[in-house]
């Protein structure tokens, strides 16, 4: 079993819909990242969390350390949100990122 | 702030030649840089971690003589793919972390390597 699991693997939404992507991990961590990768390949770091909740524009990320779970929410989704969203954790004893398998999001106009 | 660039963004080379990819932190000092490889529809795989002024630490299964990493300054790391083969064709991405600590990582835009 992977140390970082994401669900769903694929998601299709209509423009304007609320989207939730989930990430569960099985190891102790010092931080969790949400990353966005567009079809061209470049990666953008959306959030780094170690507790609580962060909001940036239409994106909200939450983390529950006790439950080892994080969610990424996209409100009022737009076709430009179509991308692969990746959850990655930094284990408590290290400095490397361990990646989830990614969630491929397609937002249709 | 916290911008990381890579050069080139794409490169095509012949089998047997060497290719150098640069990763630069533009507005911060990167004490640690990470090199990743990504095959189509797969997740990123860490190849190596480099700290400025010291030898890179390679992940298991990554040939250090084939993938030469140099982190000579706080703003530049290079990955050289030596004697490239078609199976080395991949998307190579670097990330960098700096004075705020290793938990903050900033990613470069990636370099697509095609070996013919």
Descriptive report:
- The complex is a heterodimer of chains A (109) and B (116).
- With 109 residues, chain A is mainly beta.
- Chain A has no helices and 11 strands.
- Helices cover 0% and strands 61% of the residues of chain A.
- Chain A is globular.
- By secondary structure, chain B is mostly beta strands.
- The N and C termini of chain B lie far apart (37 Å).
- The mean pLDDT of chain B is 91.
- The chains are: A mainly beta (109), B mainly beta (116).
Low-confidence stretches of chain A: none
**What do the pLDDT scores of chain A average to?**
94
* Portion in helices of chain A: under 10%
> What distance lies between the first and last C-alpha atoms of chain B, to the nearest angstrom?
37 Å
> Quick one: overall form of chain A?
globular
The 3D shape of chain B can be described as globular
Structural class of chain A: mainly beta
Largest sheet of chain B: 7 strands, mixed
Poorly predicted regions of chain B are none
Oligomer: heterodimer
Brief digest:
The complex is a heterodimer of chains A (109) and B (116). Chain A is mainly beta and 109 residues long.
Give the topology.
The complex is a heterodimer of chains A (109) and B (116).
Chain A (H helix, E strand, L loop, with lengths): L3 E4 L2 E5 L4 E7 L3 E9 L5 E7 L2 E5 L2 E6 L4 E6 L8 E9 L5 E3 L3 E6 L1
Parallel strand pairs in A: 2-11
Antiparallel strand pairs in A: 1-3, 3-8, 4-5, 4-9, 6-7, 7-8, 9-10, 9-11
Chain B lengths: L3 E4 L2 E4 L5 E7 L6 E7 L6 E7 L5 E2 L8 E7 L2 E6 L8 E9 L2 E7 L3 E5 L1
Parallel strand pairs in B: 2-11
Antiparallel strand pairs in B: 1-3, 3-8, 4-5, 4-9, 5-6, 7-8, 9-10, 9-11
């Amino acid at each position: 079993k992977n140390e970082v699991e994401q669900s769903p693997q694929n998601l299709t939404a209509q423009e304007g819909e609320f989207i939730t992507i989930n990430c569960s991990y099985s190891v102790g961590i010092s931080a969790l990242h949400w990353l966005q990768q567009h079809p061209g390949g470049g990666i953008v770091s959306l959030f780094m969390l170690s507790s609580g909740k962060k909001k940036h524009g239409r994106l909200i990320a939450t983390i529950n350390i006790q439950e080892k779970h994080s969610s990424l929410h996209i409100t009022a989704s737009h076709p430009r949100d179509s991308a692969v969203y990746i959850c990655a954790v930094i284990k408590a004893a290290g400095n490397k990122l361990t990646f989830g398998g990614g969630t491929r999001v397609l937002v249709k106009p | 702030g916290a911008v990381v660039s890579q050069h080139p963004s794409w490169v095509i080379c012949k089998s047997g030649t060497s290719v150098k990819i640069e990763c630069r932190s533009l507005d911060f000092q990167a004490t640690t840089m990470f090199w990743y490889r990504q095959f189509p529809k797969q997740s990123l795989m860490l190849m190596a971690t480099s700290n400025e002024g010291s030898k890179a630490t390679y992940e298991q299964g990554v040939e250090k003589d084939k993938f030469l990493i140099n982190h000579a300054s706080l703003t530049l790391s290079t990955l050289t793919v030596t004697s490239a083969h078609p199976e080395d064709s991949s998307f190579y991405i670097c990330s960098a972390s700096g004075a705020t600590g290793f938990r903050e990582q900033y990613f470069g835009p990636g370099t697509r390597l095609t070996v013919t």
